[in-house]
Amino acid sequence: MLMRVSNEHEQEPGERVPESRRSALIGLIIVLLLLGGGLWLIHVLRAASQLQDCVMSGRSNCAPIDSPPSSH
Q: In total, how many domains does the chain have?
């Protein structure tokens, strides 16, 4: 009498497809979040660098001041 030992890794072929797609989608979302964060950081650092360059050149009106529109 031979018994087959069940293996946890043996699954039906169609069963692992959704799991692998889910992990790929999660990985893609993480990569997109990192890319978006990197682009935002580049934008912030570039603005700070331009402000520093302006101040180091001796100008006094480097930072733009937002004023509300006058109602005359």
A: 1
